[in-house]
Amino acid sequence: MRCLSLFTLLSLACACRAADLKDLPANTFVEIKTTTVQPEWAKDDKGRFSRQGWNKLVYDPDAKRVLLYDRWVDKKHGGQTIYGNCLFGFDPESGKITPIKIDNWGKMEPKTGGYRTVPLAENDTEPTPAPRHVYHAFEYVSELKALFICNGANQGVLDKNGKFVGHDACDGTWRLDLKTSKWTQLKADGAPPNRLDDGWAYCPDIKGLVYTGANGQLWLFDVEKNTWRKAKNSPPVRTSMGRTIFYDAPRKRMLIAGGGRLDAWQQGKALEFRELYEFDPKTETVKRLADAPTAMYAQHLAHDTKRDLWFVVAVFNKNEQPSGMFAYDPKKDAWTEVKVEGGIPPHRSWFGWMQLCYDSHRDCLIGKQGEGFFAFRYETPK
Question: How many angstroms separate the CA atoms of 191 and 20, rounded?
């Protein structure tokens, strides 16, 4: 990490509310002061937001907020675990983090130690997905005002009969209707196997979600028919955990980034983690694009639609890979490093990729590092 002491001093002076977002200093990460909103039913059992990682930031243009799936900690839902159990909305204007929908699951602590995820009584009448790492298979579809998740990880799930089911409880697809605040499990044949650390993104041109999963295989999920099928072509076959995917609207294509063997980016150059591909959802063809200048594992590519640039941020504490902020220009198929004034926010865990999305209404990137939220507006250096 570079300039951390300087950034720490600057962050104290530059922490802001959204009223200040219109006046962001160029090319500078500015921390947004946050507060947590309590659910209406919470009285004596106050809760809090607790970041666990292994998830994705998505911008909701309808409510002008950032969506993420992470941990809500209170007594009712069992307190702290490493698994997300709540859909949150983050409002960059007010800095408020609001629990939108908390899953009907709690926690049990066996005498032998550790803990198990168990359904609450409410889950019988209102089924909700088991708490999990959603990874990047988390997407908002504006046309439907609905949030979709698929697969994920929780190795400690027990069903309502006390039977150990583990990760199997996370298999399959769920849809949350944000107008009714109700989850629905979408059971369909041909779904991708749950190999953990996968991703998907919505493509409005085919009214479907494109899922990147085991061995690089792409699957297509029709959100109108609730049907799955394999894509005709996929990127090279190999273990590709942590590969992510995003919709490139101006070019009506999907961008597929990085991925490889778990933790292999720590070993040597691991050049496969730098690979970027395009997937044409109409022809279902794949084309390799320019390699990124650093490794990408569970990487967030945020599309600044005003400038038509894609941004990534990576920090490697042990210098396993190049650290920094990088911009991909899709018109030139080329990457450049971004000079960040004051440095990148301090890296608060071992996970080296900043969660990132673009807020089109406020014209800035919204980043999350640990429990901190940051705003960043890019300006071309003079």
Answer: 45
CB 353 within 8 A of CB 295: no
- All residues at 6 or more sequence positions from 328 whose CB lies less than 8 Å from its CB, including other chains: 276, 290, 292, 301, 309, 310, 311, 312, 334, 335
Residue 18 has pLDDT above 70, yes or no: no
Q: Give the number of other CB atoms < 10 A from CB of residue 17.
A: 13
pLDDT digits (tens, 9 = 90+) for 249-307: 999 999 999 999 988 888 877 899 999 999 999 999 999 999 999 999 999 999 999 99
Q: Letter for the amino acid at 23?
A: D
Q: Name the residue among 136, 263, 121 with its Cα closest to residue 200.
A: 136
Residues in the chain: 382
| pLDDT at residue number 302 | 98
Structural domain range at position 126: 4-376
Q: What is the pLDDT of residue 279?
A: 98
Residues 6+ positions from 17 with CB-CB distance below 8 Å: 32, 33, 93, 94, 95
Integer Cα distance of 3 and 355 in angstroms:
20
14: phi then psi, degrees, rounded to nearest 5: -105, 5
260, 272 Cβ separation under 8 angstroms:
yes
b/e string for 77-105 if b means 16 or more Cβ within 10 A? bbeebbbbbbbbbbbbebbebbbbbbbbb
Q: Is residue 121 part of a domain?
A: yes
Asked whether residue 227 is domain-assigned, the answer is yes
Q: How many CA atoms lie within 13 A of 191 on its CB side?
A: 21
Q: Which amino acid is at 127?
A: P
CATH number at 304 reads 2.120.10.80
Which residue bears the tokens 């708490």? 131
What pLDDT score does 95 carry? 97
- Integer CA distances (angstroms), 50 to 26, 81, 278, in order: 30, 9, 35
Whether 16 is in a domain gets the answer yes
In a domain, 382, yes or no: no
Number of domains in the chain: 1
pLDDT for 340: 97
Q: How far is CA 62 from CA 22, 35, 203, 277, 360, in A?
A: 20, 22, 17, 29, 11
